Amino acid sequence: MLVATGRVIVSRCEEKQIRAIKRAVPKDAILQTYARAKIVVMKKKDYSIRKTGGKIGLLTAGTSDIPVAEEAKVIAEEMGCTVFASYDLGVAGIHRVMQPLKELIAKNVDVIIVVAGREGALSSVVAGIVDVPVIAVPTSNSYGFGEKGLGALMAMLQSCSLGLAVVNIDGGIAAGAVATLIANRAAKFRTNI
Amino acid sequence: MLVATGRVIVSRCEEKQIRAIKRAVPKDAILQTYARAKIVVMKKKDYSIRKTGGKIGLLTAGTSDIPVAEEAKVIAEEMGCTVFASYDLGVAGIHRVMQPLKELIAKNVDVIIVVAGREGALSSVVAGIVDVPVIAVPTSNSYGFGEKGLGALMAMLQSCSLGLAVVNIDGGIAAGAVATLIANRAAKFRTNI
Amino acid sequence: MLVATGRVIVSRCEEKQIRAIKRAVPKDAILQTYARAKIVVMKKKDYSIRKTGGKIGLLTAGTSDIPVAEEAKVIAEEMGCTVFASYDLGVAGIHRVMQPLKELIAKNVDVIIVVAGREGALSSVVAGIVDVPVIAVPTSNSYGFGEKGLGALMAMLQSCSLGLAVVNIDGGIAAGAVATLIANRAAKFRTNI
Amino acid sequence: MLVATGRVIVSRCEEKQIRAIKRAVPKDAILQTYARAKIVVMKKKDYSIRKTGGKIGLLTAGTSDIPVAEEAKVIAEEMGCTVFASYDLGVAGIHRVMQPLKELIAKNVDVIIVVAGREGALSSVVAGIVDVPVIAVPTSNSYGFGEKGLGALMAMLQSCSLGLAVVNIDGGIAAGAVATLIANRAAKFRTNI
Amino acid sequence: MLVATGRVIVSRCEEKQIRAIKRAVPKDAILQTYARAKIVVMKKKDYSIRKTGGKIGLLTAGTSDIPVAEEAKVIAEEMGCTVFASYDLGVAGIHRVMQPLKELIAKNVDVIIVVAGREGALSSVVAGIVDVPVIAVPTSNSYGFGEKGLGALMAMLQSCSLGLAVVNIDGGIAAGAVATLIANRAAKFRTNI
Amino acid sequence: MLVATGRVIVSRCEEKQIRAIKRAVPKDAILQTYARAKIVVMKKKDYSIRKTGGKIGLLTAGTSDIPVAEEAKVIAEEMGCTVFASYDLGVAGIHRVMQPLKELIAKNVDVIIVVAGREGALSSVVAGIVDVPVIAVPTSNSYGFGEKGLGALMAMLQSCSLGLAVVNIDGGIAAGAVATLIANRAAKFRTNI
Amino acid sequence: MLVATGRVIVSRCEEKQIRAIKRAVPKDAILQTYARAKIVVMKKKDYSIRKTGGKIGLLTAGTSDIPVAEEAKVIAEEMGCTVFASYDLGVAGIHRVMQPLKELIAKNVDVIIVVAGREGALSSVVAGIVDVPVIAVPTSNSYGFGEKGLGALMAMLQSCSLGLAVVNIDGGIAAGAVATLIANRAAKFRTNI
Amino acid sequence: MLVATGRVIVSRCEEKQIRAIKRAVPKDAILQTYARAKIVVMKKKDYSIRKTGGKIGLLTAGTSDIPVAEEAKVIAEEMGCTVFASYDLGVAGIHRVMQPLKELIAKNVDVIIVVAGREGALSSVVAGIVDVPVIAVPTSNSYGFGEKGLGALMAMLQSCSLGLAVVNIDGGIAAGAVATLIANRAAKFRTNI
Questions:
Q1: Burial B121-134 (b: 16+ CB within 10 A, else e)
Q2: Residues H152, H138: contact at Cβ < 8 Å?
Q3: In whole angstroms, how far apart are CA D178 and each of A145, B53, D133, F1?
Q4: At F193, is the pLDDT very low, low, confident or very high (cuts 50, 70, 90)?
Q5: Is the Cβ–Cβ distance between B153 and E145 less than 8 Å?
Q6: Which chain C residues are closer than 8 Å to A182 by Cβ?
Q7: Pairing of strands G39-44, G29-34
Q8: Is the separation of the CB atoms in B88 and B100 below 8 Å?
Q9: Which residues of G92-114 are buried (b: 16+ CB within 10 A; e: fewer)?
Q10: Residues contacting D110, CB < 8 A, separation 6+
């Protein structure tokens, strides 16, 4: 696969697997490991990502949502986008949401990915404010009734805010991929100018 | 029961039942009907509610949540509290939440009841801002996955905001009753002064 | 609301409600009723939709999925997009999928909405072929285990195809709104040229 | 955080984490570890809890519910309340419930937290007797159908007794926080006298 | 069937069906209709129930549980048992439970059927006091989360009290049948004396 | 407890716990360990079980259901009953069921406990043949959809056969206790003769 | 469609729809209505079913399962098979199962469809005896926990008997179609002889 | 058992169990271990499988579905069938499905087993194309909402394609057994020619 496309992306890699992959890197290739995202990218040394100009905003509600967000980030960057990330905004303190959101809007992003566990309210709040599409990612950071991300998934699908679509629980890669398609579509015409 | 306590409260009364009750009102009693709350209160003419001084804030996310909120309101008022209600705040437009909330805080309420369906995010937002206890009531205003209020219930139980407890779906009466106990407890000592 | 914005959109209107609305149309307004979508749009006579240039593909698996698709179509058109719809493609006969899909690709749509009930497989098949974002809408056309659209929702969230995000069951309006944001974002830069 | 507020509270700490924290205690701070509650509190040496005068009753149905109850206790005490705890009352033997309940009533508590797993019946029984608000905490002490606390959560939300609100499964901290707000609200006016 | 066994029992009969059955009663038969139980028994005029001596206690938590209890009662009586019923004991008021229970114990019943909806706590309380087997019947009298009797079923299966077995939701006939087998087994030897 | 009642029964004991208990046996007591039932009984040396004369049949569908059955057996025997057990009857081969069932009937048992996982059909088959009460115990021996005993529990509660009541999944102790109450009730009068 | 293939099959037809279809029958066609199966077949007068020689056994547990069984029967017969049906075998009385089963075996059927609601045990019993493939159809004839056919579906998927596959709840047409493919496959080679 | 039938098949064998079995092989027997299927077959040296002539197609959607497919394969081959397997067809790339499917059709297989996790769409696609019966096996290869194979099971039961029946999640052995019965039934008559 490395030979065919010049790049291999492996997600959900545990420590042990990363070490095994490290030993298998060919001479003409390099290995990039993203610890928090648990993603490993092996590339031909002469491989370079083609920048598309797509711009993606990326927000998380809590610190424990960051690994899922990082999955989305790595995928989006590997597919040519620029990602503007701001982590741990919370909802319990709504005032912490506004500033990072304003900055994203100022950067004129094409789409915003919101990663949240527990009650997943951040995606509703964000989609109620911005006018770009929002991709909501429920994470499994939850407990008791609604555990394993079920509560966040339900809340996101029930969202009163329009302009929001959802991927599966902990679906960082799915979110990164669909956000990239959205951003790249916009960038394609923007960069034509 | 009317004879024993001077008052009968009947909840979840449909039109037809209200008409039947109307025909059965004794001479020395009067009937108060609360159409939106679907509650009927029959009282001896000489019955009067003892005001406790308890103060309850009452918020709904949407207009369709109002009947459940009105259930809570009638119960709380019959149990002697004063209720300050503000309906249809939404979450999609977070700015609409702030002003009514400030007014409630200014009124120094003892507890706030938040009634919300769909993703139920309003309760998290409110509990993140105020420092009085919040009673969250999920309503069955929802559709598809998480319908019948399941999504709102899960989101409220998963809430990251501390200082919040939950009653069952469409549990307006349960919310009114527990909020009244909370408010009356505070009022008991306040009015002693 | 009509006065403020020049247009009111009411969804999920039953026959009876439509008749009531018809009687309430002011002199300077007209009423458009979309029977299959159960949507009613009331507009000032001088109101005209601003065409954005956004292009949306719209596919359904079966004929019973059409009402939900039409919801999405009306919303998208009212928000300025052009919608290219092709209904009843099925999956049982995969060959019926290919031709309409080729036509959509030829039309260079910015995003494709796939509406499907039962096993919801059409969205996976479509997202596996195209390279624009896909918004999948599960419908409640299902029976037995997985009824009320649960099977389709699960299948869409589990999709192996990347580039796909999901809205709630029967969420035609949610799909129309997010697809419009995606298409309009692309169109904004395309039409700038 | 220690610098800013003088205190850090960390919940759900395992043995190993506690040891790590112990090694990181600054010179001017002390560490309190609550083994059963799995909570660690680090405080500046000159930090002292401001007693609010709030009084909380705390009951558990079984011995296995105690860790969750202790979570609530630590939080409530750190927030200034006095907690009167009585563990392992059961429901199978209803006579064991009455005596501890009478003692709590005699102590004039502002709110009672009831922690119970399995069928969670204790909260209904208690709320049927007392006239202060009850916060019910389902625990994951259950097995088979209704395991992981689901049965207790359902039973508590279905409770026929009025004056009761619920937090999530194993939500000792959530219960402690909301009970404290309730108790402190009452105490605020009581201690003003 | 009437010819073969001398008796036909039809359960879950609506008004309309009862009227139809009434018209079909042969000359040599009589019809007994149990309105609350929705059971109709058609018997040869010379048919008489053989009394077994089995004694069954029957309790309900609320008034809305009575139809299910009556189902059990009719079946048990038709199978030869004597049923001692006491309805609407509640759990919210635990004191209301004790007196009827003492009377059942005094009557030396062989088994007690407990019929309860909502949180179903009555069965746990009863089984914790008596030393005869308890058959618990959850009813569909519930709302919101745990509706349709699910909460009561879970609570009954989770019961900490030993000596209790459960039938399906609204399973009055199933409860009547198994309780009769238990009571008749004991009576068989008792009456042998 | 040993001092008070002369006997302590501990269930669900793992190897390690058994070893710990073994070291704690007082001089005047003995320890009986039931490996398959994972039950440990510690008794004063002069303690002897009072035989009640109650007779219980005990059947399992498969070999993996035996540990749960043994739980029931130990409890029933400790409470004075005689247990006639026959394991691994299956349902796939219905002919294997008949012979052991005939033997139980010949032994004139007062009640039959049926322990089964997977589809739990054995309890329906048995209750359709015998005329003594049947206590059905679903076990968690299952896989895929309906795993953890849910399928067996549902099937047992749905049983068309009358004369059957159910305990929770893997509820060997609950089954043993209720079956003992049933058998002892019958035996009480039988042995009076 | 009638023109193209000479036949139209419409399932799940209510009374009202059948009357509408009756009025629309062209002159050169006839209409066959299957009341219990709720299926209507419209055929060109010169259309005749090609008999394949496939032989299908068809069993139901109860009388209320017959409509679903009839769906399967009509489909199978329209696709050229001969169907040998025996209804209302029960499982509560296992002896009622054996005779009809022997007759099916004697008729040398290629496949057996078993239609059952409630606990769905008949399919396990049948598959444990015969050596032809069994298609199990759960029906929605059930109540309480496991209602709407969920219990039967789970039990059938959990079946210990090998040689059995399952279709969705009330899936008479699905069962008829797959059984026909199985029978026709065998018949194809049998009739070649 | 080895003595009685000449063969023992043990499924779901872990490494450790295989080693234990290896040590217990009698002199006159041999052991075949199928690592991917986790199946071990012990046979008398003179035991030989009787080829039936039954032909089974076997497809998987992904590589992680192979172990379940191999279970089916080993069982089918041990029961005398020939299995034509093609793994990792996917659905995301529909073009990858067509070629292997054409080859299976060319081989004139009697039945096709389709093994798929995630959204399980492959079975619908295959059953829509072929005219032999399809046995669909959902696997537990899934994540988030619909995890443990629930999404694939639902999708397969909801399939719009006729001619398809389903076994439980990860039910490779169940699928192998029922497919074998189907294939052998056809082969019996084919080989008679």
A1: bbbbbbbbbbebbb
A2: yes
A3: 18, 21, 11, 38
A4: low
A5: yes
A6: 111, 133, 182, 185
A7: antiparallel
A8: no
A9: bebeebeebbeebeeeebbbbbb
A10: B185, D54, D55, D56, D132, D182, D183, D186, D187
Helices A172-190, C172-190: inter-axial angle, 10-degree rounding: 40
G48 vs G32: CA distance, rounded Å: 13
d(CA B133, CA B183): 10
pLDDT in tens, chain E (193 residues): 778 888 999 999 988 989 999 998 999 999 999 999 999 999 999 999 999 999 999 999 999 999 999 999 999 999 999 999 999 887 666 778 889 999 999 999 999 999 999 999 999 999 999 999 999 999 999 999 999 999 999 999 999 999 999 999 999 999 999 999 999 999 999 876 5
CA distance H147 to chain C (A): 8
Query: What pLDDT score was predicted for residue B184?
Result: 96
Enter the pTM of the model: 0.96
Spatial distance between the Cα atoms of E168 and E172, rounded to a whole number of angstroms:
9
Strand, helix or coil for residue E134: strand
Task: Report helix, strand or coil for D72.
Answer: helix
Answer for the pair B104, B86: CB distance below 8 angstroms, yes or no.
yes
> Which H, E and C letters describe chain C, residue by residue?
CHHHHCEEEECCCCHHHHHHHHHCCCCCEEEEEECCCCEEEEEECCCCCCCCCCEEEEEECCHHHHHHHHHHHHHHHHCCCEEEEECCCCCCCCHHHHHHHHHHHHCCCCEEEEEECCCCHHHHHHHCCCCCCEEEEECCCCCCCCCCCHHHHHHHHCCCCCCEEECCCCCHHHHHHHHHHHHHHHHHHHCCC
Q: CA-to-CA distance for D38 and F46, rounded, in angstroms?
A: 43
**Alpha carbon of residue D72 to chain centroid:** 2
For residues E95 and D101, the answer to whether their CB atoms sit within 8 Å is no
Residue A61, token pair as written in the block: 């509600």
Look up the ipTM and state it.
0.95
Give me the phi and psi of A151, to 5 degrees please: -60, -45
Provide the token pair at B63: 């207009």
**Cβ contact, residue pair A151, B155, below 8 Å:** yes
Question: How far apart, in whole angstroms, are the C-alpha atoms of residue E67 and residue E69?
Answer: 5
Q: Are A55 and A81 in contact (CB under 8 A)?
A: yes
Measured between CA atoms, the residue of chain A closest to residue H118 is: A168
CA–CA separation, D16 and C189 (whole Å): 55
Contact B113, B58 (CB under 8 A): yes
Among chain D residues, CA nearest to B136 = D165
- Across the range G56-61, mean pLDDT stands at 97
Least confident range of A151-160, B21-30, D83-92, D130-139 = D83-92
Consecutive H or E run containing F96: helix F95-106
Mutate which: D118, D124, D139, D156, vs E, most E CBs within 10 A: D124
Please, where are the H alpha helices in chain H? 2-5, 15-23, 66-78, 95-106, 121-129, 150-157, 172-190
Chain-chain contact of H163 with G173 (C-beta, under 8 angstroms)? no
Chain G hits for F146, Cβ within 8 Å: 154-155, 157-158
Please check whether residue B78 is in contact with residue B54, taking contact to mean a CB–CB distance below 8 angstroms.
no
Sheet strands (E) in chain B: 7-10, 29-34, 39-44, 55-60, 82-86, 111-116, 134-138, 164-166
| Residue corresponding to tokens 């499907």 | C116
CA distance B6 to G177: 68
pLDDT digits (tens, 9 = 90+) for C113-149: 999 999 999 999 999 999 999 999 999 999 999 999 9
Note whether F touches B: 3 CB pairs or more under 8 A: no
Q: Chain D residue with minimal CA distance to A151?
A: D168
Q: Measuring CA to CA, how many Å separate B25 from each of B22, B32, B44, B125?
A: 6, 11, 10, 44
